[in-house]
Prior knowledge:
By secondary structure, the chain is of the alpha+beta class. The protein has helices spanning 100-107, 125-136, 140-156, 171-187, 194-201, 205-216, 220-236, 243-249, 255-266, 270-277, and strands at residues 3-8, 18-26, 32-36, 41-48, 50-55, 60-65, 68-72, 78-82, 89-96, 115-117. The strands form two sheets. The chain has a six-stranded antiparallel sheet with strand order 1-2-9-4-7-10, covered by helices on one side. Helix 1 (100-107) runs parallel beside helix 3 (140-156), helix 2 (125-136) runs antiparallel to helix 3 (140-156) and helix 4 (171-187) crosses helix 6. InterPro entries: AraC-bd (IPR003313), Homeodomain-like_sf (IPR009057), HTH-like (IPR037923), HTH_AraC (IPR018060), HTH_AraC-typ_CS (IPR018062), Tscrpt_reg_AraC-type_HTH (IPR020449).
Amino acid sequence: MHKKRTNIFNNISYIDLYPIQFGYETCSPSHAKPLAKQNNYLLHYIIDGSGEFRNIDTNERVYLTQGQGFLISPDQVTSYQADLYEPWTYYWVEFNGVKAWNYLRKMGFSRNKSTYQTQEGYALDNFINLFEQLLDTNREEETIGTLFLLMDRLIQGSSDFVPIQNDDLNHNQNFYIKESIKFITRNYQNNISIKDIADHCKLSRTYLTKLFKAELETTPSAYLSQYRMNKALELLKDPNQSIGSISDQIGYSNQFVFSNAFKKEFGMSPSQWRNLESH
Length: 279
């Protein structure tokens, strides 16, 4: 029987590391996720059963089982499928942030390696308890703290742990990324452009985009859009908010543009999402 639990986090203003959503899934036999791209990092950790993971960009096609995991990085084309006889059960967390890739590198991930292996003798409960806390809490501070603990636990438990010195990070680049994100969080409700963000940081649009791609593996435009979409999800939970009002509050020029952007992101209209959420 297919079972699924999810929890959505609606605040991406923490900059360094923030969750977007997380969940638990017991898959039915041969349950498959078709080839697709993600906007953020999506990490799966398998606690039972097995299945196959495929990454077109890294040319990986691997069979994974309990105690292993797989990472989908932004804009990589991947697919995965549960085993026919012993379908997998896994936890997953979607996240991003300026320091996200630094944590993932310490776990042993690289641009050409998307799989995770727990070191021998490391108990699964070390991870399960923290994943369950992420699913159960609705407090922002507790969620952020638990995510940091989970990252640390995954680093400690990795058989491919890679120590990375802090000076490996480019602090100047991080400064501009943080300033850009601060500008977005304070002005997303206005009709701001990427040029406005670049001008605020006294950088060219081209260089700002280069920094975002290097640090967050996304573009300033995509980050701004995602921030607005997360705010939209939060507002859509209030039945008294009209679609037009929500559009105005998150910086879209009109309801039509907002609805198109929302459908592109989530595969359904704002009204359809609201109806699903209310049932």
